[in-house]
Amino acid sequence: MLAASAWADDAKGSQTEAKAMAEKAIAHVKASGAEKAFQDFMADPKWKDRDLYVYSGDFSGKMTSHGANKALVGKDFLGMKDANGFELMKGLIDVAKNKGSGWIDYMWTNPTTKKIEPKTAFVIRIPNADGFVVVGAYK
Question: Deepest of 13, 56, 72, 111, by most Cβ within 10 A of its Cβ?
Fold first, then answer.
């Protein structure tokens, strides 16, 4: 039983890994420009690690890239709520605008277990832009 539990932990990314990926993503945006970086986040496998992936949004609530589901790009998520009614996109925008970076906690359906689980995401504002990058990890 312990071996199965250890494997399950290895199958998901940690908060430390999520933060590190978000920091690499913002460095990539700075080096390559937002448009190129957003395309890379969706196409280059190095931006996915187990259940970790990069997504980005702008301060209007629009998804600008999504490493797990390209179909979400361009859609408005300003009113999106988690399972407890928390307005996730508004929360991400608030942290990015007012703190520059930080953690935000919410409840989300885990695609592996199909259950609603606690998740945390590290968000970083894109310098000199009205947008941000995010990487989340299940707790």
Answer: 56
Write out pLDDT tens, residues 2-59: 444 444 456 889 999 999 999 999 999 999 999 999 999 999 999 999 999 999 999 9
Q: Quick one: tokens of 114? A: 């199909």
User: Could you read off the pLDDT of 88-120 as tens digits, one per residue?
Assistant: 999 999 999 999 999 999 999 887 788 999 999
From 62, 65, 59, 61, select the one nearest 36 (Cα to Cα): 65
* Pair 135, 52: CB distance under 8 Å: yes
Does the predicted model carry a pTM greater than 0.85? Answer: yes
The pair of structure tokens assigned to 139 is 């707790």
The domain segmentation of the chain, as residue ranges, is 25-134
| Amino acid at residue number 44 | D
Rounded to whole angstroms, how far apart are CA atoms 29 and 37? 5
pLDDT score at 80:
94
Q: Does domain 25-134 have CATH number 3.30.450.20?
A: yes
